[in-house]
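Module 6 notes. Inverse folding takes a fixed backbone as the condition and produces residue identities as the prediction. Think of it as a translation problem where the source language is geometry and the target language is the twenty amino acids. Below is one complete input and output pair. Work through it position by position during the lab.
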């Protein structure tokens, strides 16, 4: 092992029996399999502390060279949410009316999506996840970040599971292009929108598509 120039600390983790490991993994999968993307939100308030805890859970995700190349914008301001909805719907109309191929639109049919994004107004919180390809010092010096998309993607997944764990629902929304988000939030040049995620309680009449996930045989290839 090469010499370590940075201080290291001992790593300790509780070891469990094989039986408990199987039980834990099975129950966690069953719980995670209940997570759904929801488009019908309640306006019921959610404590800010809950959102902060979910975001900080996301920030425990691994990242290239431990650069943690992400920024989470936590939005509850009604005026700003309405502005984001207006801009998002403008881009979505362009996509549904010309940018998307017929095949793409056909694939979206089971989800019942369209260019109307009322959930941006209704959900109590909108979380904007931005990726940072580089860090920008006060003197203008740039410091590269590594594996940015992979790192921010992992953090986004951690965030969604934290939201699910809190008893809330979320939706990953990716209007394309998303430059309008950075402009509306007046973010610096080194931050670029990655996901727009409404978070809150499901509406009382919330529905989700009757879909199934891929089976184990469709997902796993074994090399024993």
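Target side of the pair, the amino acids:
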């Amino acid at each position: 092992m090469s010499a370590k120039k940075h201080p290291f600390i001992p790593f300790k983790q509780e070891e469990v029996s094989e039986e408990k490991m199987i039980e834990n993994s099975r129950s966690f999968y069953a719980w995670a399999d209940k997570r759904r993307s929801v488009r019908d939100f309640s306006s019921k308030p959610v404590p800010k502390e809950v959102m902060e805890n979910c975001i900080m859970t996301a920030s425990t995700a691994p990242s290239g060279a431990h650069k943690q190349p992400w920024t989470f914008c936590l939005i509850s301001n009604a005026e700003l949410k309405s502005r984001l909805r207006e801009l998002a719907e403008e881009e979505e109309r362009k996509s549904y009316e010309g940018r998307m191929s017929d095949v793409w639109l056909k694939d979206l049919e089971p989800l019942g999506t369209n260019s109307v994004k009322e959930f941006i107004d209704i959900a109590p919180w909108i979380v904007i996840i931005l990726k940072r390809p580089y860090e920008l010092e006060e003197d203008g010096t740039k410091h590269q970040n590594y594996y940015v998309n992979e790192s921010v993607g992992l953090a986004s997944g951690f965030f969604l599971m934290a939201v699910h764990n809190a008893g809330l629902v979320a939706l990953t929304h990716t209007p394309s292009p998303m430059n309008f988000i950075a402009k509306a939030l007046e973010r610096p040049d080194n931050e670029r929108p990655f996901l727009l995620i409404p978070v809150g309680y499901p509406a009382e009449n919330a529905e989700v598509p009757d879909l199934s996930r891929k089976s184990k045989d469709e997902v796993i290839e074994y090399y024993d």
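Reference fact for the lab report: The chain has one domain: 38-204.
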